[in-house]
Amino acid sequence: MNIIKVKHCSACKMPFDCGDTVQGEKCWCNDFPPIFNPLDIADCLCPTCFTNACSTKIDEFVATITPETAVGNKASLLPETAQIIEGIDYYFEDGNYVFKPWFHLKRGYCCKSDCTHCPY
Predict the structure, then answer these.
(1) Would you call 38 helix, strand, or coil by DSSP?
(2) Which InterPro entries match (predicted)?
(3) Does residue 113 lie in a domain region?
(4) Which of 37, 46, 57, 60 is the most buried (most CB within 10 A)?
(5) Tens digit of pLDDT for each residue in 19-72?
(6) Cα Rg for the chain, rounded, in angstroms?
(7) In this structure, is residue 36 part of a structural domain?
(8) What's the CA gap between 50 and 28, in Å, rounded?
């Protein structure tokens, strides 16, 4: 039996379920890219506030990228993951996935498909 920890978001104060358990299971926040330490911002955040904080940090990083610095950037050096996160890696537009610059930077190269947010 897993014991779920209920925490309160340090930003919005709403209760949320933390995924860390006494059995050693890891929290849902471990699925996000390790680009910043959330504790540098605040204590634990709910999924919405965490996604917003992560997205802000990613947008700040992406703003520093040029086509010349895109190859070999720190995003491409992160461990590969099959999971993509809405709001971080993509958004929906007219029912279609639109991949954000972070997704492309993690991939590490241009796929030559004329993507809207390609940083290469």
Answers:
(1) helix
(2) DUF5522
(3) no
(4) 46
(5) 766 566 677 777 777 766 655 656 788 888 888 888 888 999 999 999 999 988
(6) 16
(7) yes
(8) 10
